[in-house]
Amino acid sequence: MSDIAIRVENLGKQYRIGALQKNGGHYTYKSLRDSIASAASAPFRAARALMGRDGSQANHDEDTIWALKDVSFDVKHGDIVGVIGRNGAGKSTLLKILSRITEPTTGHIEIRGRVGSLLEVGTGFHPELTGRDNVYLNGSILGMKNAEIAKNFDAIVAFAEVEKFIDTPVKHYSSGMYLRLAFAVAAHLQTEILLVDEVLAVGDAAFQRKCLGKMSEVASEGRTVFLVSHNLAAVENLCASALWISSGRVTAQGSCSTVLSGYIQDSRGQDGRSNGLEQMRRSGNGRVKVTGCWFEDENGCMIQRAKSGEPVIVAIEFQAAPNTRNVDVGVSLSSLWDQMLFVHYSSYVGQYFSDLPARGVFRCVLVQQPLSPGDYQVGVRIVENASEADWPRGSVATLEIVQSDFYGTGHAGFSGQALLLLDSRWTLGNVTSSFHNMRS
């Protein structure tokens, strides 16, 4: 028997961009009469297009988009594969095709094994049915027999932590309860292949750890996990291999560390700035807006890397509306796997800014950054008069830290094992009687 669980060859998915027609440079919805007339004339338009007598084919191409194009890959039984890529890359479309929710336009897929899918919160749940009924309904949809569902029922309910509400209609559940029960059903029923979309971000930190632990357990049983996630830390910790999709095509597939490194490098420019700042999801009223971010040394020169312990300046370029007041600027620093190291606002040191120029630069001087060698990413948030002005949801710049004699002793510390280097002073003394009394 083949060891391939999922085989995808030359897969493509094309969508029409709405039932729209162009009118004077704008798209408008067709009326019912237009739709009927269009349907009746479709055979004649197709014939004319084949004979090259009109521009129907060109117009058709303008109204379609390829969500996936020429996608090919293999996944072996027991593999845990992380699927990464920017929003709109085609990751969720791929999972919908693998789950047989939608049909591919071109190519084909082979899946050897029963598939369980968790594509979004509450998928397949009926709001009027109780949690108990929905467990059996979901299990039946996945092809399980009632006896098999009953065998796992108690474990599902315990994992989801909804014992008190299992006989309550799920329309009364919170989104967190929906998520816990949906994940528990997909993870506990004995499917050979588990497809998971970006749903872990909905749960709290404790539940996310619980889910990751369950998926590790699932994989250790020889089952296959196909995980779509923007959480690179989860992908790095859970997956042995990764698939990077960009603009509907496979950019890279291979070991997790290699693929993630390429993805991170691609997401930033040659000078360390983010390539996708304008495309990032962001919130705020826009009165002060981040337009760029980079790093400088003590002399004001732009840098891409710095030594451990050296001063680093975070420069945040912005544009501002007139009459700005009480602007508070925050920066965060995290590892490439989204492990947060610190968050620091100008207000922490008593600094607010008013009457900003139309365009300018905030600078935050990290006097002695204690970072061990590696790559780090910066996030920025701006608040004006206690209201959020701009918060790009992603890394706006990346800095490389290289090794130095941080301690002045020639010892480099535990490079690669700890993110921060701690400067300290040690002393030696005797244990006093008062200390003994305190301990007793």
Notes on the structure:
The protein has 440 residues and is α+β, with helices and mostly antiparallel strands. It has three domains: 18-62, no CATH class; 69-266, Rossmann fold (3-Layer(aba) Sandwich), CATH 3.40.50; 282-402, abc- transporter (atp binding component) like domain (Coagulation Factor XIII, Chain A, domain 1, Distorted Sandwich), CATH 2.70.50.60. 26% of the residues lie in helices and 32% in strands. It is built from ten helices and 22 strands. Strands 12, 15, 17, 18, 20, 21 and 22 form a seven-stranded mixed beta sheet that branches. Helix 4 (131-141) crosses helix 5 and helix 4 (131-141) packs across helix 6 (175-188). The chain is globular.
Q: Give average pLDDT, whole number.
A: 80
User: How many E strands?
Assistant: 22
CATH class of the largest domain: Alpha Beta
Strand content: 25-35%
Subunit organisation of the chains: single chain
- Which shape, going by the Cα principal axes? globular
Largest sheet report: 7 strands, mixed
Could you estimate the helical fraction of the residues in percent? 25-40%
- From the 3D structure, determine the CATH topology of the largest domain: Rossmann fold
N- to C-terminal distance? 68 Å
Structural class: alpha+beta
Q: What is the CATH-assigned architecture of the largest domain?
A: 3-Layer(aba) Sandwich
Number of helices: 10
User: Which residues form runs of ≥5 with pLDDT under 50?
Assistant: 19-29, 53-60
CATH superfamily of the largest domain: P-loop containing nucleotide triphosphate hydrolases
Radius of gyration: 27 Å
The figure for the number of domains is 3
